[in-house]
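Sequence in, structure out. First:
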Amino acid sequence: MKNVRTSVDGSIGRITLARPDKKNALDRVTADELAEALFAMSESPVNVVAIDGEGPDFCTGADLAAIEEMLDAPRQQHLDDAKALGHVFHTIRRMEKPVVALVKGRAYAGGAGLATACDIVLAHEDARFAYPEVTIGFVPAMVMTMLRRSVGEKHAFDLVSTGRILKADEAQAIGLVSRVFAAMEFEQLSKAALDNLAAAPPSAMAATKTLFYKLDTLGFLDGISAGIVANADARATPAFREGVKRFTSRKKEQ
């Protein structure tokens, strides 16, 4: 892989967009490498996956120079190019491990979409988010599926119809960002957050993420029913049995 770099630190996997000269813009090669890296992490023993960008920016979106070169290409080629990024979003959602975006600098267009696709977004206080596709005659097409779930219709349409830039604190206020960390504490606190996620029993985390997104497709009563099944299944796992015993033993010692 030349556009994406991967590393593992204990139970934490890291995927780094490594095109700082292009502000980590997403072309077909990068999207394919990102999907491949995500799949590899899903099959590895890590418990949590972090995505970040090399250099001052997280990702400024699609590589417009690459798109310009294929403007006159057949429609199928454009569909295939779009599917490559869609596959990344789909892979993140299907993975049983939490995927965390660590955002510094700009997360614009497809870069904002990549952050939005992640389960958790941890933002540096100087991070900026925007969906400016409409300003160049484009559409934040795949991103809207995730964005309107994250921030609601009114905020989502405001963002995609104006392309306005959000500071990290406003992005957190509307639900686009999970947490914002001060510059001097970003590395330390984001690492602590990843450690906390990685410490959870993988079986419980997998069941939680699976049910969480399954609820998108279910009505209220069906959601409760699915929760009943997940609840009972969790009670049968070794992690839960050990967790209950640890908790009750501490209570008995008090």
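Second:
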Amino acid sequence: MRRFREWEYWARPLPGFGDPRARLWVIGLAPAAHGGNRTGRIFTGDRSGDWLYGALYRAGFANQPTSVARDDGLELDGAFVSAVVRCAPPDNRPTPEEGDRCLPYLAAELSRLDRVRVFVALGGFAFTNVVRMLRATGDTPVETPRFGHGTMVRLASGRTLLGCYHPSQQNTFTGRLTERMFAAVFASARRLVAS
């Protein structure tokens, strides 16, 4: 969006965040323009982040339920959070081309997160691109992956991909995603990580 181009933080790439020994990897679409893009940490300083870090806290993956700034004391234990696209996309809708350009960065994170057992993809775009990344690295789904909230896909490596509606205001304000539904995905992730 042109009106934000003069802002100091606009369109800067954003790395993932969390425990380098993570067994759970949560992958969203892209940084929020005035959330993670502004604060410098993914899912920080916006309502989606409030939902995500609250759920991670309740599932035992975070030391606090909120994150408003990079230096607010949030620490993840056994979890890592990132996004398919590394810069805030126009109109908050990443294109397939942006996914293509950023996929190597996602694959590079995967090579460093060698203990991951469970992936949670937030939204259909993230789900599709996580499947693409996994196939490109040789970890093929055992069955045909189809996105849906609560979808569980077993991978050839024995790892698991969980589909989850994105905690965007569009989903949470309309009731398409409730806190109970969101918590259930992270409860499943907790059980899978422990098994």
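Remark: The longest helix spans residues 96-112.
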